[in-house]
Amino acid sequence: MRWLRPCSGSRGLCAAAPVLAAAAVASCAPTGDAPGAGEGASATGANRMVELLSSGQPVFGIFSGEHTPGQGARMARNREADFVFYSLESGPFDIPAMEAYMEGMREGAGEYAPQPVALRIPPIRDGADSARARARAGLAAGAHSIVYPHVESVEEAELAVGTLGEAAWPGNADGNLVNILLIEDRIGIERAAEIVRTPGVSVVIPGPGDLRRAYEGDMEAVEAAIQTVLAECLATGVACGITAGPDDIGERLDQGFRFFIVTSPEALTVGRAHAGRAEAEVARATGTIGLWERNLAAFGVFVPPEFAGGAGPGGGGRPGPGAEPGAGGRGQRGPPRYTVEGGRELARNPLLDFVFLNLERNYDPDAVEAIATGLRSPGAVGRKTLLVRIPSIEQGGEEATRARVREALELGADGVVLPHVRNVAEARAAVGFFEDAGADVWSPANPDGTVIAMLMVEDPDAVAEAAAIADVPGYSVLACGIGSLTGALGGDREAAEEGNQAVLAEATRAGLADMITANAADIEQRVGEGFLGLLMQVGGAEEAIRLGRQAAGR
Fold it and tell me: Which residue range(s) make up the domain with 137?
Protein backbone atom coordinates (compact mmCIF):
# COMPACT_ATOMS: atom_id res chain seq x y z
CA MET A 1 0.00 0.00 0.00
CA ARG A 2 1.15 3.55 -0.62
CA TRP A 3 1.09 4.50 3.05
CA LEU A 4 2.88 1.48 4.46
CA ARG A 5 5.29 2.16 7.29
CA PRO A 6 8.69 0.46 7.42
CA CYS A 7 9.38 -2.21 10.03
CA SER A 8 11.56 -0.38 12.54
CA GLY A 9 11.80 -0.29 16.30
CA SER A 10 10.79 -2.92 18.80
CA ARG A 11 7.23 -1.68 19.20
CA GLY A 12 6.19 -1.47 15.56
CA LEU A 13 3.63 -3.68 13.88
CA CYS A 14 6.18 -5.78 12.12
CA ALA A 15 7.94 -6.46 15.41
CA ALA A 16 4.66 -7.44 17.03
CA ALA A 17 3.63 -10.00 14.45
CA PRO A 18 6.19 -12.69 15.35
CA VAL A 19 4.77 -12.86 18.88
CA LEU A 20 2.14 -15.20 17.50
CA ALA A 21 4.23 -16.64 14.73
CA ALA A 22 7.18 -17.87 16.78
CA ALA A 23 7.26 -21.48 17.92
CA ALA A 24 6.22 -21.41 21.56
CA VAL A 25 6.90 -25.02 22.43
CA ALA A 26 10.17 -26.73 21.57
CA SER A 27 12.38 -29.45 22.94
CA CYS A 28 14.71 -28.50 25.73
CA ALA A 29 17.13 -30.51 27.83
CA PRO A 30 19.27 -29.80 30.86
CA THR A 31 22.99 -29.36 30.45
CA GLY A 32 25.24 -31.41 32.67
CA ASP A 33 24.47 -34.57 34.60
CA ALA A 34 25.18 -33.53 38.19
CA PRO A 35 22.06 -32.82 40.22
CA GLY A 36 21.57 -29.80 42.43
CA ALA A 37 21.75 -26.05 42.18
CA GLY A 38 23.57 -24.70 39.18
CA GLU A 39 22.16 -27.18 36.70
CA GLY A 40 21.30 -25.56 33.41
CA ALA A 41 18.46 -26.07 30.97
CA SER A 42 18.10 -24.64 27.52
CA ALA A 43 15.00 -24.08 25.46
CA THR A 44 14.23 -22.58 22.10
CA GLY A 45 11.11 -20.73 21.05
CA ALA A 46 9.22 -17.80 22.51
CA ASN A 47 7.51 -18.13 25.88
CA ARG A 48 4.45 -15.91 26.09
CA MET A 49 4.57 -16.03 29.89
CA VAL A 50 8.04 -14.45 29.95
CA GLU A 51 7.07 -11.79 27.42
CA LEU A 52 4.11 -10.70 29.54
CA LEU A 53 5.83 -10.94 32.92
CA SER A 54 8.79 -8.95 31.60
CA SER A 55 6.50 -6.16 30.44
CA GLY A 56 4.55 -6.09 33.71
CA GLN A 57 1.31 -7.35 32.21
CA PRO A 58 -0.90 -9.95 33.88
CA VAL A 59 -0.73 -13.52 32.62
CA PHE A 60 -3.79 -15.73 32.18
CA GLY A 61 -3.65 -19.52 31.89
CA ILE A 62 -6.20 -22.30 32.00
CA PHE A 63 -6.26 -25.86 33.33
CA SER A 64 -5.62 -28.42 30.62
CA GLY A 65 -8.76 -30.51 31.00
CA GLU A 66 -8.53 -34.19 30.10
CA HIS A 67 -5.13 -35.38 28.92
CA THR A 68 -6.01 -36.23 25.32
CA PRO A 69 -4.80 -34.87 21.95
CA GLY A 70 -8.32 -33.75 21.11
CA GLN A 71 -8.51 -31.68 24.28
CA GLY A 72 -5.09 -30.25 23.49
CA ALA A 73 -6.36 -29.11 20.10
CA ARG A 74 -9.38 -27.47 21.72
CA MET A 75 -7.26 -25.63 24.26
CA ALA A 76 -4.87 -24.36 21.59
CA ARG A 77 -7.76 -22.74 19.74
CA ASN A 78 -8.54 -20.54 22.74
CA ARG A 79 -6.26 -17.61 21.96
CA GLU A 80 -7.22 -15.79 25.16
CA ALA A 81 -5.13 -18.26 27.18
CA ASP A 82 -1.46 -17.33 27.57
CA PHE A 83 -0.52 -20.82 28.79
CA VAL A 84 -2.00 -24.22 29.58
CA PHE A 85 -1.59 -25.67 33.08
CA TYR A 86 -0.95 -29.42 32.81
CA SER A 87 -0.80 -31.36 36.08
CA LEU A 88 1.03 -34.63 36.71
CA GLU A 89 1.22 -34.07 40.45
CA SER A 90 -0.75 -37.23 41.20
CA GLY A 91 -1.29 -40.44 39.29
CA PRO A 92 1.13 -41.84 36.70
CA PHE A 93 3.89 -39.45 35.66
CA ASP A 94 2.97 -39.94 32.00
CA ILE A 95 5.22 -37.76 29.83
CA PRO A 96 4.27 -39.53 26.56
CA ALA A 97 0.62 -38.60 27.20
CA MET A 98 1.67 -34.97 27.67
CA GLU A 99 3.66 -35.10 24.44
CA ALA A 100 0.57 -36.40 22.61
CA TYR A 101 -1.51 -33.63 24.19
CA MET A 102 1.01 -31.04 23.02
CA GLU A 103 1.00 -32.50 19.53
CA GLY A 104 -2.77 -32.02 19.57
CA MET A 105 -2.15 -28.42 20.58
CA ARG A 106 0.17 -27.90 17.63
CA GLU A 107 -2.42 -29.28 15.23
CA GLY A 108 -5.25 -27.30 16.79
CA ALA A 109 -3.34 -24.02 16.75
CA GLY A 110 -3.30 -23.97 12.95
CA GLU A 111 -1.25 -21.04 11.66
CA TYR A 112 -0.61 -19.79 15.20
CA ALA A 113 1.90 -21.03 17.74
CA PRO A 114 0.39 -23.12 20.55
CA GLN A 115 0.51 -21.72 24.06
CA PRO A 116 3.41 -22.74 26.33
CA VAL A 117 2.68 -25.54 28.78
CA ALA A 118 3.25 -25.21 32.54
CA LEU A 119 3.83 -28.70 33.94
CA ARG A 120 3.05 -29.41 37.59
CA ILE A 121 5.17 -32.26 38.96
CA PRO A 122 4.89 -34.10 42.32
CA PRO A 123 6.21 -32.24 45.42
CA ILE A 124 9.93 -31.96 46.06
CA ARG A 125 9.35 -33.52 49.48
CA ASP A 126 8.64 -36.81 47.70
CA GLY A 127 12.33 -36.89 46.76
CA ALA A 128 14.72 -34.21 45.55
CA ASP A 129 16.38 -36.40 42.93
CA SER A 130 13.00 -37.50 41.60
CA ALA A 131 11.88 -33.88 41.37
CA ARG A 132 14.95 -32.96 39.34
CA ALA A 133 14.49 -35.93 37.02
CA ARG A 134 10.81 -35.15 36.48
CA ALA A 135 11.53 -31.50 35.77
CA ARG A 136 14.17 -32.51 33.21
CA ALA A 137 11.75 -34.92 31.55
CA GLY A 138 9.09 -32.22 31.32
CA LEU A 139 11.50 -29.71 29.81
CA ALA A 140 12.80 -32.28 27.33
CA ALA A 141 9.20 -32.96 26.27
CA GLY A 142 8.67 -29.28 25.49
CA ALA A 143 7.24 -27.67 28.64
CA HIS A 144 8.38 -24.09 29.17
CA SER A 145 7.48 -23.95 32.84
CA ILE A 146 7.80 -26.32 35.80
CA VAL A 147 5.35 -25.95 38.67
CA TYR A 148 6.55 -27.15 42.08
CA PRO A 149 3.67 -27.82 44.52
CA HIS A 150 3.88 -27.72 48.33
CA VAL A 151 7.14 -25.77 48.53
CA GLU A 152 7.99 -25.57 52.24
CA SER A 153 11.48 -24.09 52.55
CA VAL A 154 14.15 -21.96 50.96
CA GLU A 155 16.12 -25.14 50.19
CA GLU A 156 13.26 -26.46 48.08
CA ALA A 157 12.93 -23.07 46.38
CA GLU A 158 16.63 -23.12 45.53
CA LEU A 159 16.29 -26.60 44.05
CA ALA A 160 13.35 -25.45 41.91
CA VAL A 161 15.29 -22.46 40.61
CA GLY A 162 18.52 -24.38 40.13
CA THR A 163 16.97 -27.20 38.14
CA LEU A 164 15.91 -24.77 35.41
CA GLY A 165 19.34 -23.15 35.55
CA GLU A 166 20.53 -20.30 33.38
CA ALA A 167 17.66 -20.63 30.91
CA ALA A 168 15.19 -19.42 33.55
CA TRP A 169 13.68 -15.97 33.86
CA PRO A 170 14.20 -13.63 35.74
CA GLY A 171 17.64 -14.85 36.83
CA ASN A 172 18.51 -14.56 33.16
CA ALA A 173 16.70 -11.58 31.67
CA ASP A 174 16.82 -13.34 28.29
CA GLY A 175 15.71 -16.70 29.67
CA ASN A 176 12.58 -18.39 28.40
CA LEU A 177 11.78 -20.85 31.20
CA VAL A 178 9.55 -20.07 34.16
CA ASN A 179 9.62 -21.68 37.60
CA ILE A 180 6.38 -21.53 39.57
CA LEU A 181 6.36 -22.26 43.30
CA LEU A 182 3.12 -23.21 45.05
CA ILE A 183 2.89 -22.49 48.78
CA GLU A 184 0.10 -24.71 50.07
CA ASP A 185 0.90 -25.63 53.68
CA ARG A 186 1.10 -23.81 57.01
CA ILE A 187 4.86 -24.24 57.24
CA GLY A 188 5.25 -22.73 53.78
CA ILE A 189 3.17 -19.72 54.78
CA GLU A 190 5.33 -19.26 57.89
CA ARG A 191 8.42 -19.26 55.65
CA ALA A 192 6.85 -17.24 52.83
CA ALA A 193 9.28 -14.33 53.14
CA GLU A 194 12.40 -16.43 52.62
CA ILE A 195 10.80 -18.56 49.88
CA VAL A 196 9.69 -15.49 47.91
CA ARG A 197 13.10 -13.86 48.33
CA THR A 198 15.00 -16.84 46.93
CA PRO A 199 17.05 -15.43 44.00
CA GLY A 200 15.73 -16.42 40.58
CA VAL A 201 12.12 -17.23 41.58
CA SER A 202 9.73 -16.45 38.73
CA VAL A 203 6.23 -16.83 40.21
CA VAL A 204 4.86 -17.73 43.66
CA ILE A 205 1.27 -18.92 44.11
CA PRO A 206 -0.58 -19.48 47.37
CA GLY A 207 -2.82 -22.49 46.56
CA PRO A 208 -6.33 -21.83 47.94
CA GLY A 209 -7.54 -25.43 47.66
CA ASP A 210 -4.74 -27.05 49.64
CA LEU A 211 -4.56 -24.13 52.06
CA ARG A 212 -8.21 -24.73 52.85
CA ARG A 213 -7.34 -28.27 53.90
CA ALA A 214 -4.28 -27.05 55.80
CA TYR A 215 -6.39 -24.59 57.78
CA GLU A 216 -9.25 -27.08 58.22
CA GLY A 217 -11.78 -25.05 56.29
CA ASP A 218 -11.17 -21.74 58.09
CA MET A 219 -11.56 -19.45 55.09
CA GLU A 220 -10.55 -16.33 57.02
CA ALA A 221 -7.24 -18.02 57.85
CA VAL A 222 -6.90 -19.14 54.24
CA GLU A 223 -7.41 -15.61 52.94
CA ALA A 224 -4.96 -14.25 55.50
CA ALA A 225 -2.38 -16.78 54.28
CA ILE A 226 -3.00 -15.77 50.67
CA GLN A 227 -2.57 -12.10 51.55
CA THR A 228 0.66 -12.89 53.42
CA VAL A 229 2.20 -14.36 50.27
CA LEU A 230 0.87 -11.53 48.12
CA ALA A 231 2.37 -8.93 50.44
CA GLU A 232 5.80 -10.58 50.26
CA CYS A 233 5.59 -10.71 46.45
CA LEU A 234 4.56 -7.07 46.17
CA ALA A 235 7.38 -6.06 48.47
CA THR A 236 10.01 -7.87 46.40
CA GLY A 237 8.61 -7.49 42.88
CA VAL A 238 8.06 -11.22 42.40
CA ALA A 239 4.95 -12.08 40.38
CA CYS A 240 2.23 -13.50 42.61
CA GLY A 241 -0.32 -15.92 41.21
CA ILE A 242 -3.71 -17.28 42.23
CA THR A 243 -6.48 -19.51 40.92
CA ALA A 244 -9.58 -17.52 40.06
CA GLY A 245 -12.96 -17.63 38.39
CA PRO A 246 -15.05 -15.03 36.56
CA ASP A 247 -16.60 -13.80 39.83
CA ASP A 248 -13.36 -12.94 41.65
CA ILE A 249 -10.67 -12.46 39.02
CA GLY A 250 -11.29 -8.71 38.82
CA GLU A 251 -10.89 -8.31 42.58
CA ARG A 252 -7.69 -10.38 42.54
CA LEU A 253 -6.27 -8.18 39.79
CA ASP A 254 -7.03 -5.09 41.84
CA GLN A 255 -5.25 -6.66 44.82
CA GLY A 256 -2.05 -7.00 42.79
CA PHE A 257 -2.02 -10.60 41.55
CA ARG A 258 -0.33 -10.89 38.15
CA PHE A 259 -0.50 -14.59 37.29
CA PHE A 260 -3.77 -16.50 37.01
CA ILE A 261 -4.86 -20.09 36.53
CA VAL A 262 -8.55 -20.37 35.71
CA THR A 263 -10.96 -23.24 35.19
CA SER A 264 -13.30 -21.57 32.68
CA PRO A 265 -12.82 -19.63 29.44
CA GLU A 266 -15.23 -17.01 30.79
CA ALA A 267 -12.71 -16.10 33.49
CA LEU A 268 -10.08 -15.48 30.81
CA THR A 269 -12.39 -13.06 29.04
CA VAL A 270 -13.37 -11.26 32.24
CA GLY A 271 -9.79 -11.06 33.50
CA ARG A 272 -8.32 -9.75 30.26
CA ALA A 273 -11.05 -7.12 29.97
CA HIS A 274 -10.60 -6.01 33.59
CA ALA A 275 -6.83 -5.80 33.16
CA GLY A 276 -7.09 -3.83 29.94
CA ARG A 277 -4.69 -6.30 28.35
CA ALA A 278 -3.51 -4.41 25.27
CA GLU A 279 -3.34 -6.83 22.37
CA ALA A 280 -3.96 -4.09 19.83
CA GLU A 281 -0.56 -4.26 18.14
CA VAL A 282 -0.59 -8.03 17.78
CA ALA A 283 -4.24 -8.11 16.75
CA ARG A 284 -3.66 -5.41 14.17
CA ALA A 285 -0.51 -7.01 12.78
CA THR A 286 -2.27 -10.33 12.26
CA GLY A 287 -5.66 -8.86 11.28
CA THR A 288 -6.94 -7.69 7.93
CA ILE A 289 -5.70 -4.10 8.24
CA GLY A 290 -2.29 -5.29 9.39
CA LEU A 291 -2.02 -7.63 6.41
CA TRP A 292 -2.99 -4.89 4.00
CA GLU A 293 -0.46 -2.52 5.54
CA ARG A 294 2.20 -5.06 4.62
CA ASN A 295 0.80 -5.53 1.10
CA LEU A 296 -0.38 -9.05 1.95
CA ALA A 297 -3.63 -10.50 0.70
CA ALA A 298 -6.38 -11.22 3.24
CA PHE A 299 -8.86 -14.06 2.71
CA GLY A 300 -12.48 -14.26 3.76
CA VAL A 301 -15.86 -15.81 3.10
CA PHE A 302 -19.45 -14.71 2.81
CA VAL A 303 -21.27 -15.51 6.04
CA PRO A 304 -23.56 -18.36 4.92
CA PRO A 305 -27.18 -17.64 5.81
CA GLU A 306 -29.43 -20.23 7.41
CA PHE A 307 -33.02 -20.74 6.34
CA ALA A 308 -36.06 -22.11 8.07
CA GLY A 309 -36.15 -25.76 7.12
CA GLY A 310 -32.72 -25.49 5.53
CA ALA A 311 -29.22 -26.54 6.51
CA GLY A 312 -27.86 -26.21 10.04
CA PRO A 313 -25.88 -23.34 11.51
CA GLY A 314 -23.03 -22.08 9.43
CA GLY A 315 -23.35 -24.75 6.83
CA GLY A 316 -26.11 -24.16 4.35
CA GLY A 317 -28.40 -21.77 2.62
CA ARG A 318 -26.01 -20.82 -0.12
CA PRO A 319 -27.52 -19.10 -3.14
CA GLY A 320 -28.68 -21.32 -5.91
CA PRO A 321 -27.29 -21.41 -9.46
CA GLY A 322 -27.19 -18.03 -11.07
CA ALA A 323 -27.49 -16.12 -7.82
CA GLU A 324 -25.01 -13.35 -7.17
CA PRO A 325 -22.48 -14.50 -4.55
CA GLY A 326 -23.63 -13.57 -1.07
CA ALA A 327 -26.90 -12.17 -2.37
CA GLY A 328 -28.83 -13.36 0.66
CA GLY A 329 -30.00 -16.68 -0.65
CA ARG A 330 -32.11 -15.70 -3.64
CA GLY A 331 -34.12 -18.73 -4.71
CA GLN A 332 -34.28 -20.15 -1.17
CA ARG A 333 -37.41 -20.30 0.97
CA GLY A 334 -37.83 -17.72 3.71
CA PRO A 335 -35.62 -14.78 4.62
CA PRO A 336 -32.02 -15.51 5.57
CA ARG A 337 -31.14 -15.65 9.25
CA TYR A 338 -27.82 -15.54 11.03
CA THR A 339 -26.98 -16.91 14.47
CA VAL A 340 -24.32 -16.63 17.14
CA GLU A 341 -23.41 -20.28 16.58
CA GLY A 342 -22.87 -19.56 12.89
CA GLY A 343 -20.44 -16.82 13.90
CA ARG A 344 -18.69 -19.17 16.33
CA GLU A 345 -18.19 -21.73 13.58
CA LEU A 346 -16.52 -19.16 11.36
CA ALA A 347 -14.44 -17.92 14.29
CA ARG A 348 -12.93 -21.37 14.75
CA ASN A 349 -11.58 -21.51 11.18
CA PRO A 350 -7.86 -20.59 11.31
CA LEU A 351 -7.73 -19.87 7.56
CA LEU A 352 -10.09 -16.90 7.66
CA ASP A 353 -8.91 -13.31 8.06
CA PHE A 354 -12.32 -11.71 7.60
CA VAL A 355 -15.98 -12.57 7.09
CA PHE A 356 -18.39 -10.68 4.85
CA LEU A 357 -21.98 -10.38 6.08
CA ASN A 358 -24.15 -9.46 3.13
CA LEU A 359 -27.27 -7.57 4.21
CA GLU A 360 -27.70 -5.57 1.01
CA ARG A 361 -31.17 -6.96 0.29
CA ASN A 362 -32.25 -7.83 3.82
CA TYR A 363 -30.73 -5.41 6.32
CA ASP A 364 -31.05 -6.90 9.81
CA PRO A 365 -29.26 -5.40 12.83
CA ASP A 366 -29.87 -8.60 14.81
CA ALA A 367 -27.76 -10.45 12.25
CA VAL A 368 -24.85 -8.04 12.76
CA GLU A 369 -25.01 -8.48 16.53
CA ALA A 370 -25.30 -12.28 16.31
CA ILE A 371 -22.32 -12.75 13.99
CA ALA A 372 -20.19 -10.21 15.88
CA THR A 373 -20.93 -12.04 19.14
CA GLY A 374 -20.07 -15.41 17.63
CA LEU A 375 -16.83 -14.16 16.12
CA ARG A 376 -15.67 -12.85 19.51
CA SER A 377 -16.38 -16.13 21.34
CA PRO A 378 -13.64 -17.64 23.55
CA GLY A 379 -13.00 -20.45 21.07
CA ALA A 380 -12.11 -18.05 18.27
CA VAL A 381 -8.84 -18.64 16.43
CA GLY A 382 -7.49 -15.13 16.02
CA ARG A 383 -9.71 -12.11 15.54
CA LYS A 384 -11.75 -12.17 12.36
CA THR A 385 -12.60 -8.84 10.77
CA LEU A 386 -16.36 -8.45 10.30
CA LEU A 387 -17.40 -6.52 7.18
CA VAL A 388 -21.12 -5.75 6.79
CA ARG A 389 -22.63 -4.81 3.45
CA ILE A 390 -25.73 -2.66 3.84
CA PRO A 391 -28.26 -1.47 1.21
CA SER A 392 -27.06 1.19 -1.23
CA ILE A 393 -27.61 4.91 -0.82
CA GLU A 394 -29.97 4.80 -3.80
CA GLN A 395 -32.03 2.03 -2.23
CA GLY A 396 -32.12 3.22 1.39
CA GLY A 397 -31.74 6.96 1.10
CA GLU A 398 -29.05 9.03 2.78
CA GLU A 399 -30.60 9.26 6.23
CA ALA A 400 -31.28 5.52 6.54
CA THR A 401 -27.81 4.70 5.20
CA ARG A 402 -26.17 7.08 7.65
CA ALA A 403 -28.06 5.43 10.51
CA ARG A 404 -27.17 1.93 9.33
CA VAL A 405 -23.45 2.72 9.15
CA ARG A 406 -23.52 3.94 12.74
CA GLU A 407 -25.67 1.04 13.91
CA ALA A 408 -23.58 -1.68 12.27
CA LEU A 409 -20.39 -0.30 13.83
CA GLU A 410 -22.02 0.00 17.25
CA LEU A 411 -23.20 -3.62 17.03
CA GLY A 412 -19.68 -4.93 16.44
CA ALA A 413 -18.84 -4.58 12.75
CA ASP A 414 -15.21 -3.75 11.98
CA GLY A 415 -16.16 -2.22 8.66
CA VAL A 416 -19.15 -1.30 6.52
CA VAL A 417 -19.50 -1.85 2.77
CA LEU A 418 -21.55 0.57 0.65
CA PRO A 419 -22.61 -1.07 -2.65
CA HIS A 420 -23.54 0.67 -5.90
CA VAL A 421 -21.79 3.98 -5.26
CA ARG A 422 -22.80 5.76 -8.45
CA ASN A 423 -20.65 8.88 -8.52
CA VAL A 424 -18.28 11.19 -6.68
CA ALA A 425 -21.11 12.86 -4.79
CA GLU A 426 -22.26 9.56 -3.33
CA ALA A 427 -18.66 8.62 -2.48
CA ARG A 428 -18.31 11.85 -0.50
CA ALA A 429 -21.65 11.25 1.19
CA ALA A 430 -20.54 7.73 2.13
CA VAL A 431 -17.34 9.03 3.73
CA GLY A 432 -19.47 11.54 5.61
CA PHE A 433 -21.57 8.74 7.12
CA PHE A 434 -18.47 7.29 8.77
CA GLU A 435 -17.41 10.74 9.99
CA ASP A 436 -20.86 11.28 11.50
CA ALA A 437 -20.56 7.94 13.27
CA GLY A 438 -17.25 9.01 14.82
CA ALA A 439 -15.47 6.09 13.14
CA ASP A 440 -11.66 6.05 13.09
CA VAL A 441 -11.42 5.01 9.44
CA TRP A 442 -8.22 3.44 8.14
CA SER A 443 -7.20 5.32 5.00
CA PRO A 444 -4.15 6.74 3.20
CA ALA A 445 -4.64 9.91 5.22
CA ASN A 446 -5.14 8.03 8.51
CA PRO A 447 -2.85 4.97 8.60
CA ASP A 448 -3.53 4.40 12.31
CA GLY A 449 -7.27 3.99 11.78
CA THR A 450 -9.11 0.87 12.90
CA VAL A 451 -12.38 0.90 10.91
CA ILE A 452 -12.73 -0.25 7.30
CA ALA A 453 -14.87 1.85 4.97
CA MET A 454 -15.43 0.08 1.65
CA LEU A 455 -17.06 1.56 -1.43
CA MET A 456 -18.19 -0.52 -4.40
CA VAL A 457 -18.64 0.73 -7.96
CA GLU A 458 -20.87 -1.65 -9.90
CA ASP A 459 -22.38 0.35 -12.74
CA PRO A 460 -20.79 1.45 -16.03
CA ASP A 461 -21.17 5.17 -15.27
CA ALA A 462 -19.57 4.71 -11.83
CA VAL A 463 -16.66 2.76 -13.30
CA ALA A 464 -16.11 5.62 -15.73
CA GLU A 465 -15.68 7.89 -12.68
CA ALA A 466 -13.36 5.46 -10.88
CA ALA A 467 -10.39 7.83 -10.91
CA ALA A 468 -12.35 10.69 -9.34
CA ILE A 469 -13.99 8.37 -6.80
CA ALA A 470 -10.58 6.95 -5.86
CA ASP A 471 -9.38 10.49 -5.13
CA VAL A 472 -12.13 11.13 -2.56
CA PRO A 473 -10.29 11.08 0.80
CA GLY A 474 -11.31 9.24 3.93
CA TYR A 475 -12.02 5.61 3.07
CA SER A 476 -10.19 2.28 2.92
CA VAL A 477 -11.27 0.03 0.04
CA LEU A 478 -12.45 0.66 -3.51
CA ALA A 479 -13.82 -2.42 -5.24
CA CYS A 480 -15.66 -3.30 -8.41
CA GLY A 481 -18.75 -5.46 -8.00
CA ILE A 482 -17.95 -7.51 -11.06
CA GLY A 483 -21.11 -9.62 -10.91
CA SER A 484 -23.41 -6.60 -10.88
CA LEU A 485 -21.28 -4.85 -13.50
CA THR A 486 -21.50 -7.88 -15.78
CA GLY A 487 -25.27 -7.82 -15.43
CA ALA A 488 -25.42 -4.10 -16.16
CA LEU A 489 -23.37 -4.72 -19.32
CA GLY A 490 -25.81 -7.31 -20.57
CA GLY A 491 -23.62 -10.25 -19.64
CA ASP A 492 -20.48 -8.98 -21.37
CA ARG A 493 -17.87 -10.55 -19.08
CA GLU A 494 -14.92 -9.24 -21.08
CA ALA A 495 -16.10 -5.65 -20.76
CA ALA A 496 -16.82 -6.17 -17.07
CA GLU A 497 -13.31 -7.48 -16.50
CA GLU A 498 -11.89 -4.42 -18.24
CA GLY A 499 -13.87 -2.27 -15.82
CA ASN A 500 -12.69 -4.36 -12.90
CA GLN A 501 -9.07 -3.90 -13.90
CA ALA A 502 -9.60 -0.16 -14.35
CA VAL A 503 -10.92 0.09 -10.80
CA LEU A 504 -7.99 -1.94 -9.50
CA ALA A 505 -5.55 0.40 -11.22
CA GLU A 506 -7.18 3.48 -9.70
CA ALA A 507 -7.38 1.91 -6.24
CA THR A 508 -3.69 1.00 -6.39
CA ARG A 509 -2.76 4.48 -7.56
CA ALA A 510 -4.68 6.07 -4.68
CA GLY A 511 -3.26 3.70 -2.05
CA LEU A 512 -6.57 1.93 -1.48
CA ALA A 513 -7.10 -1.80 -1.06
CA ASP A 514 -9.25 -3.61 -3.61
CA MET A 515 -11.40 -6.69 -3.04
CA ILE A 516 -12.70 -9.30 -5.47
CA THR A 517 -14.65 -12.52 -5.31
CA ALA A 518 -12.54 -15.56 -6.14
CA ASN A 519 -12.42 -19.35 -6.19
CA ALA A 520 -9.80 -22.07 -6.45
CA ALA A 521 -9.60 -21.64 -10.24
CA ASP A 522 -8.66 -17.97 -10.26
CA ILE A 523 -7.42 -17.02 -6.79
CA GLU A 524 -3.73 -17.27 -7.67
CA GLN A 525 -4.33 -14.99 -10.66
CA ARG A 526 -6.20 -12.46 -8.53
CA VAL A 527 -3.47 -12.40 -5.88
CA GLY A 528 -0.88 -11.88 -8.60
CA GLU A 529 -2.88 -9.00 -10.06
CA GLY A 530 -2.71 -7.17 -6.75
CA PHE A 531 -6.12 -7.67 -5.15
CA LEU A 532 -5.67 -7.53 -1.37
CA GLY A 533 -9.10 -8.83 -0.36
CA LEU A 534 -10.14 -12.24 -1.72
CA LEU A 535 -13.74 -13.21 -0.95
CA MET A 536 -15.22 -16.68 -1.39
CA GLN A 537 -18.29 -18.76 -0.71
CA VAL A 538 -17.87 -21.19 2.19
CA GLY A 539 -18.06 -24.24 -0.07
CA GLY A 540 -14.59 -24.83 -1.51
CA ALA A 541 -13.09 -21.86 0.32
CA GLU A 542 -10.44 -23.84 2.20
CA GLU A 543 -8.81 -25.15 -0.98
CA ALA A 544 -8.90 -21.70 -2.55
CA ILE A 545 -7.45 -19.99 0.53
CA ARG A 546 -4.60 -22.46 0.76
CA LEU A 547 -3.73 -21.74 -2.86
CA GLY A 548 -4.09 -18.02 -2.29
CA ARG A 549 -1.92 -18.01 0.81
CA GLN A 550 0.82 -19.81 -1.07
CA ALA A 551 0.59 -17.32 -3.92
CA ALA A 552 0.70 -14.43 -1.43
CA GLY A 553 3.71 -15.83 0.39
CA ARG A 554 1.78 -16.32 3.62
Answer: 48-278
